[in-house]
Amino acid sequence: MRSPTPMLIIDWRKCIGCRTCELACAMAKGSPEKLGRPRIAIHRPDDAPIPMTCLQCLEAACVKICPVGALSRHPETGAVVLDENRCIHCQSCVAACPFGHISWAEESRTPLKCDLCDGQPACAKFCPTGALTYK
Amino acid sequence: MQLVIDGIPCTAESGETILQVARRNRIDIPTLCHHDALEGVGACRLCVVAVRAHAEAVDAQVVASCMYAVKDGLQVDTATPEVRRLRQTVLDLLAARCPDAPEIQALRERMGGDAIDYAPAVDGSKCIMCYRCVRACEAIGCNAIAAVNRGPQKEIAPPFFDATQRCIGCGTCAAICPTGHIAVTETPQYREIWSQRFAMAQCAGCGAPFMTEATREHLAGLGKLKPDYFTHCAACRQRDAAARFVRVGT
Ligand code: FES
Q: What structural domains does chain A harbor?
């Protein structure tokens, strides 16, 4: 079934491990003064670089485990997004994601995950080789 | 339905609170105990506003906006002199009760009213009795803490101030506390909270402590996800997933 919303597609064979996606994400999630914490990371199992970030699972473990419904699917972008005003900081989502795509920011006591930049993911925009595309 | 807040006409659904409608319309009302995901308790009274039943009504009533359900035609004023004075009193009393809570001082400065400095409590704690911790604990399904005693002696604690099976040491109460009142001590081996010690679960991959054993049992016991979801820390799970993806693709 074709997803009704665009998807972030990771074609790791095209990844050259330049980490531009990490930087683009850090800039998108930060302020002009300070870089944010990237929601994407390049891993190198057997030396082959592969970008890892939230896949916006249709049946998402994080959504299932959240006790207060703070995580939900954005109707337009299809991303699983966090309502920070609803979050009670229990870290259940961090524990639940089977791919480890949600990290914890101790300073702000909030879970960090990819929200597809409201439909304009910076990582895909800046990826020089097309390993990350959004379509 | 329609109501007016600070002269701005607002549309609302029945069952919504004044605070919800105000925030949606970017009208600022200060709050301390309110939390979007937790049931309202109206504990702090910082969110008070003046309401009149309709535009011609002269009598105003002061209500807690986080609890008050909207009615059609309601006229709301979020900053009348009386409302400001009541908020100031709340903050002045809290400042005396919790002299070490910088959050209260910051709010007082933001309000910019004529503050009265009451004699600070000698054994003052940082607890402002907002019940966020109690309600979050309930939302998680543990119900390990509640208010005990009455009046100035009232405080939040586990039953009989003692270790309890209900507490899983997850630390959510401490994380949601607006003033940092709830103490947590953490070592690689254990976490101590509410004077109770909890063994940390070690990640099966890297050995790092990543949650308490009791929290892991609680999450696995919910039955929402398979227990083997909770064996590795997030960093190890991402690393393992990367290796799996590359293997599948070659
Ligand atoms: S925010 Fe309404 S009473 Fe505390």
A: 8-134 (3.30.70.20)
